[in-house]
Amino acid sequence: MSRTAAAGDTGDRPAEGPRRVLVLRCPDWLAEEEPDVPGEAARAFEPVVAIIEQFCPQAEVLRPGLAAIAARGPARYFGGEAALASKLAESVCLRGYPCQVGVADGLFAADLAAQSGPGGLLVPPGETPQFLSGVPVAALRIPELTDLLPKLGIRTLGEFAALPAAEAGSRFGAQGTIAHRLARGLDPRPLAPQPPRLDLSVQQVFDPPAEQSDPVIFTAKALADQMHARLSARGLACVRVQVQVLCADGQELTRLWRHDGLLSALAVAERVRWQLEGWRAGQERDDGIGTGGITLLRLVPDQLVRATGHQLSLWGEAVVSDRVARAAIRVQALLGQEAVTRPVLSGGRIPAEQVLLIPFGDSGTPRRPADQPWPGQIPAPAPATVYPEPRAASVADDAGAAVSVSGRAQLSAPPAWLSVDGGPARAVTRWAGPWPVTERWWDPAGARRQARFQLITDDGNAWLTVLQDGQWLIEARYD
Amino acid sequence: MAAGLILERPPDVARVVALSPMRHRDDVLPGAGILPVLPALSDLLPAGGLQRGSVVTSGDWGLLSLALAAGASATGAWCAVTGVPALGVRAAADAGLDPGRLVLIPDPGQNWPQVVASLLDGFDIVLLRPAGQPPAQLRRKLEAAARRHASVLLVAGEWPGAQTRLVVSEEEWTGIGAGYGRLRARKVRVAASGRGAGERPRFRWLWLPGPDGTVTAAEPWLAAGDAAEPLVSSG
What is the pTM of this model? Predict the structure, then answer.
């Protein structure tokens, strides 16, 4: 498909009037503020994107659950914006994904329109400022402003848009300028005019074709670095990046990615991975790329803006420096993406439950919060060795009989010998317990009835053991 | 990785890293060449901290390995741990290691030397538990990688070329008796020795860990018989 045709509709030529944007929201994905593992969500959203692409090949994924297309071209084809919106909503809903569709001038308004009413809203051309004027300023989602403006008596976007643009900029800074443009139904940043012949895209040919995703993802990071270097040499940055993948059998996989901040090199690599994995999942194959391999990866910067040095961190916590990211991605290229993880502390009673391992490059938040008290949690200090899978053990009393615990937490005899994984029995010098735990008794699948012990053996090792259904297991070692 | 694929490294990076290993360390760290350690450990190390480009061993895997990395992590250094599939992240965090700056490669596989070399290029500290003692040639290669990238290789195990060796020589748990109490704290004696001539062994008593999981200096041991505290309900 031709890039120039799409560019006409996506706003590279503002002279044609405000661009019409259609936004599709799937509330199921957006219910949680931050998905547990965005990579997972992106992969799961892929079937929906595939449906959207039947209407417009240039679908833009804002985040899992939220996608946009330029409405003008497809609307002509499908017989008007209303027909396009209802056909698209129907196709997506029929596949089992409830959704809302909004059409308006510009992405910001289209997203708000999609949220208005159960099925969304179509704002006719030219009426976007009127539609926005009644919307509360909270819709801007810029906390500094949305707290401040109502105190100044400015409650709606219409009232804010009524301020002179220069005043919004001087009183509220760069964010004020962005917010003011949004309130007037404009794009948040003015698009930089791009000399038509300047090709800022970067590409890498794979010869022989790459059979696995990992080297392609690794290359994507290096390409993104190059692309950023070229852009910044011209004082530019890009809001969106188009990722084109060509396969040996002639298939082409193209996707536009947008990031709320500007896309960092690592963020680009991450999106290439989502794209490849989502695509592979769609093909229901799990052995490599499976189409003769990937022959070309090209990154095309899209929607160029003046670089302001503004960069949101991709991670919630510490900002990963390029140096660290490069090393981690290189190891991922060697061992696979899942082999390199970042730990996130999570809630839970037993040590193995208290940590969530997120593949490097994904970001995530624990399902069970870590900062809440967990009654029955193993008290501090925590063990330095926590086995991902408990190790088998046997605990015997002085007479050599297995130690058991009754339903009333009565011990059959003091533990005297511990053997780990069928190894030689070590004398137990000191011990404490049993501490009975019945967890999640309301949930038959998750219910556990256990008794925990701490044991010290004569070689100086200290163990956290659990007796569950008559079986002794070792969960952790205090070393 | 597909055979024949040549990854083009951004040329400026290769050049700059070779010229000045400190260039990318924008998120780290004051004190050129020395990574800070927890106060309780600084007396054990000749430089008062971890010398960049050096190899430090901590005996068998345990909390001491994590505690050695904790001080630097708290001041912004990044730490990668490889070869430790059963790492207790909670214990690491309680000792002062920032989980947000921790990356785990539990199983580096057959290719582990290449993995470690790659990690040394990016992380300030690489904590490695090797499966057995690596051959001398391999050790020298990784020592050179640590020097070149000015990172610290912490080894949980044997490493004959290490600049500094720490080892837990005595340990005793408190708080637990025969059928009562619970593990509350462990008092250990850590011995440090160096490779340099005239380097005398040093000893320190530590709480490793203390009752709240932190690692602090401890008074020398009193009498082994007083180990257990009175019975305390574990809640």
Answer: 0.58
